[in-house]
Design a protein that fits this description.
By secondary structure, the protein is an alpha+beta fold. Helix content is about 35%, strand content about 20%. The strands form 6 sheets. Strands 3-2-1-9-10-21 form a 6-stranded mixed sheet, sandwiched between helices. Strands 11, 12, 13, 14, 19 and 20 form a 6-stranded mixed sheet that branches. The longest helix is centred in the middle third of the chain and has 19 residues, at about 230-250.
Length: about 400
């Protein structure tokens, strides 16, 4: 396939990065996605089957359930996935899918049947002129200018260490841990429960008054609210807790005693109902299990609770000896949970302690926040806009000749 078919500014490829927390979409060659919307959506009625987007989610609807199309990072509900793509094409990008090639990210452990169906969906339903499916870890490495790296992706559902060598994922070296954003949210909920702090979501609040720290909140509830589902209420509470964590949580540069932590100034956070609470040592204690999970509440999690440094070292140790130095010196951080202040510094300290003195450990954090949150999308944007990539697309002609199995040959 010639580069002239898809190259240039006239027909830019559309890049999709569908994560468990948000969906990123935009045009190849741009620095950041045009759309960054929640992966969760609200069920609707016969007229509007799904309500999608931040504004739609913030509006309470009677008995509407919060659902999402992914499970373990893979597409599970195809109807919901198509509803999301329809929304992105029409409301966010305002383009005809038949006019733009599509580059889409996928998790490194994606199943063949899902890959085949994704390829089939893009060509049959969306009539795209060309398609490519690429591992998100490869794209994250590419975004930082590397073809060999260890990508540590700590998102909402899980942490994964994925070794990439010469642009290919080393499948035998993938290591997962449930210690990630949802785990921290569960720890935070436990703390708020112990402190008897009630989290009132924004949809319930009509107005509030300013109060001093520790004083009872003074707020007025909205009247005539619909009877919302428990999934909707819990989702809106989770949004408040996520905001709280972004504001107060911090990783200490080393394991610290209560005495050391109590010396650090506390942070104040105002809840949606106006209540102000101080967060002191718990700011560091809640994320500490990411690096030292011993004693963690086992009821919250399933699976092997490997600390961040153990996820990294286990993954690298499963790779060929000759590759290991390149992986240790190119640890790339991805995912929103890694944005906590002190995360990269602590990971560097812990990883250095697990290697020999002759081994160079380098944690790559990217230039700014968006580099880490959007790393897979940025990699897709760069890759799809390269002139020498144009011959790698799966063309519509190739799909019609070989069928959906062509994705196995063209997108390893």
């Amino acid at each position: 396939m010639s580069g002239s078919v898809y190259g240039g500014d006239e027909v830019g490829a559309v890049c999709f990065d569908i994560g468990s927390h948000t969906v990123r979409a935009g045009f190849a060659g741009e620095d950041a996605p045009k759309a960054n919307i929640p992966t969760h959506m609200l069920t609707g009625d016969d007229n509007t089957k799904y309500h999608i987007g931040t504004n739609a989610l913030s509006y309470p609807r009677e008995k509407a359930e919060v659902v999402m199309p992914l499970k373990d990072g893979m597409i599970e509900n195809w109807e919901q996935c198509e509803a999301m793509l329809d929304y992105v094409y029409t409301k966010c990008l305002s383009v005809d899918s038949a006019e733009h090639p599509v580059m889409m990210s996928e998790v490194a452990w994606n199943r063949p049947a899902i890959r085949h169906k994704t390829c089939e969906m893009m060509f049959e339903k969306y009539n795209v002129p060309a398609f490519f499916l690429c591992k998100n870890a490869v794209l994250a490495a590419f975004a930082s200018g590397r073809s060999t790296a260890l990508v540590l992706d700590t998102g909402s559902v899980q942490t994964t260490a994925i070794p990439v060598h010469d642009g290919y994922v080393l499948q035998h070296g993938i290591v997962k841990s449930p210690l990630a954003g949802n785990f921290l949210a569960a720890q935070m909920r436990e703390h708020l429960k112990e402190q008897k702090i009630e989290v009132v979501p924004t949809y319930k609040i009509a107005s509030k008054e300013q109060v001093k720290e520790g004083e009872s909140p003074k707020w007025v509830a909205k009247k005539n609210l619909p009877a919302v589902s428990s999934s909707y209420h819990n989702y809106m509470v989770d949004c408040v807790i996520e905001d709280l964590m972004q504001h107060v949580l911090q990783v200490h540069d080393r394991p610290a005693s209560d005495e050391d932590l109590n010396m650090i100034p506390a942070n104040i956070f105002e809840f949606p109902n106006g209540y102000n609470a101080m967060f002191g040592a718990e700011r560091f204690k809640i994320p500490e299990p990411l690096f030292d999970p011993i004693g963690t509440n086992l009821r919250i999690l399933g699976g092997d609770m490997l600390a961040m440094q153990h996820v990294v070292s286990s993954s690298i140790s499963m790779c060929d000896v000759d590759v290991r130095p390149s992986l240790w010196s190119n640890i790339i951080l991805a995912g929103g949970t890694t944005l906590m202040s002190g995360f990269s510094e602590r990971l560097t300290t812990e990883c250095t302690a697990k290697t020999t003195s002759s081994m160079k450990v380098k944690v790559v954090t990217g230039g700014n926040t968006s580099d880490r949150i959007f790393s897979a999308w940025v990699g897709a944007s760069i890759l799809a806009s390269l002139g020498n990539f144009q011959e790698l697309w799966i063309s519509k002609q190739e799909y019609e000749e070989e069928g959906k199995l062509v994705v196995d040959r063209k997108c390893p």
